[in-house]
Write a structure and sequence with these properties.
Blueprint: E1 2-7, E2 17-21, E3 30-40, H1 42-49, E4 59-60, E5 64-72, E6 84-88, E7 98-102, E8 107-108, H2 115-135, E9 143-146, H3 152-163, E10 167-172, H4 175-183, E11 188-191, H5 197-204, E12 210-215, H6 222-226, E13 229-237, H7 251-255, E14 260-262, H8 266-269, H9 273-289, E15 296-301, H10 305-313, E16 320-324
Parallel strand pairs: 9-10, 9-12, 10-11, 12-13, 13-14, 15-16
Antiparallel strand pairs: 1-2, 1-4, 3-5, 3-7, 3-16, 5-6, 6-8
Length: 325
């Protein structure tokens, strides 16, 4: 028997339970993986609360992990026991010492990247990859706005966007996070609880606005974000930390400059294995080159995941957080 964090009902962090689970042998096309580290991400909160429904309850949470293959099921030829792997995709179930996962959802982990770094970068890093390279393809000379710039995706995306030659404007909640964002690529940092971010963006860009807004905050920033965009700009809403964006009249996009709006997910962008491998490969390349550095800012024992969730929701964390089995 091994242990895992499971929920039997939706709710606050108190519903997270540390329990014994039976893992069993891998079925056809599956791997059994022993985790060295597990990633903590805001999507885990959405699964816990029921905003993003799970298939059934009870269920083990978690979307991201890294570790070693213990056993392979029939038909698996790409991996063997002892291989190091990482992943950031469904099926949900990473908050576990050991788990089963489809082999086509994991990627081989380069020797230069340890388990903690991998668990800190796969979901957030591949999110940054699709945002910057596919949803709106950032070009040298673009100005972009990145909300939650001191968060996990924010620290990676800021460095990556700057590496691509963009002017990076980030929003944060306090001066400590502002310093962190500046140290990770932001040219301009706006402390949103004492500055009007829309006015500051217009000032920074000489009234032109930005090419794209990357917004994981949601309800609190949505309308202001639209006013930051240049004509034909792209509004990318990829998270709901402050709550879901309320329904809005599409005509507002026309009135504000024929804007584009999208609500993407990593799961769609990596649904095909070729896309998953390409995304991970580009991430590994920018990390290995030093263009993007990954920092594990907090660690928690996996058994204390409830405490990690409380800190995450209270915005007490910065950058990447890892849970240790």
């Amino acid at each position: 028997m091994s242990k895992a964090i499971r929920i039997h009902e939706h709710g606050g962090p108190e519903v997270l339970r540390w329990e014994e689970v039976e893992v069993g042998e891998p079925g056809p096309g599956q791997l059994r993986v022993r985790h060295g580290a597990v990633g903590l991400n805001y999507i885990d909160v959405y699964h816990r609360t029921g905003l993003y429904p799970l298939p059934s309850l009870p269920w083990t949470l978690g979307m991201e992990g890294a570790g070693q293959v213990e056993a392979v099921g029939d038909g698996v030829t790409e991996f063997k026991p002892g291989d190091r792997i990482a992943y950031a995709s469904p099926p949900v179930g990473a908050y576990a010492e050991v788990r089963l996962i489809p082999a086509d959802r994991v990627v081989a982990l380069p020797d230069a990247i340890d388990d903690r770094t991998a668990a800190a970068m796969m979901l957030q890093g591949m999110t940054a990859q699709y945002l910057l390279r596919r949803t709106y393809r950032v070009q040298a000379g673009d100005a972009i706005l990145l909300h939650a710039a001191a968060g996990g995706v924010g620290l990676i995306a800021s460095q990556w966007a700057r590496h691509l030659g963009a002017t990076v404007i980030g929003t944060v909640g306090n001066d400590e996070k502002a310093e962190l964002a500046r140290a990770h690529g932001c040219h301009h940092v706006i402390v949103y609880n004492r500055e009007n971010f829309t006015e500051r963006v217009r000032e920074i860009t000489g009234g032109q606005g930005v090419a794209a807004v990357y917004d994981s905050v949601g309800k609190d920033t949505f309308m202001g974000s639209l006013d930051c965009l240049r004509p034909l700009g792209m509004m990318v809403s990829f998270g709901n930390a402050s709550g879901p964006v309320p329904p809005f009249e599409p005509g507002i996009l026309a009135a504000k400059g024929s804007l584009f709006f999208t609500r993407p997910t990593l799961m769609t962008y990596t649904a095909q294995r070729a896309d998953l491998l390409a995304s991970a490969s580009e991430l590994f390349e920018v990390v290995s080159s030093g263009a993007v550095r990954i920092e594990v800012r907090q660690t928690y024992p996996l058994a204390e995941t409830a405490r990690a969730h409380r800190d995450l929701e209270a915005r007490q964390t910065t950058g990447s957080t890892v849970l240790l089995p």
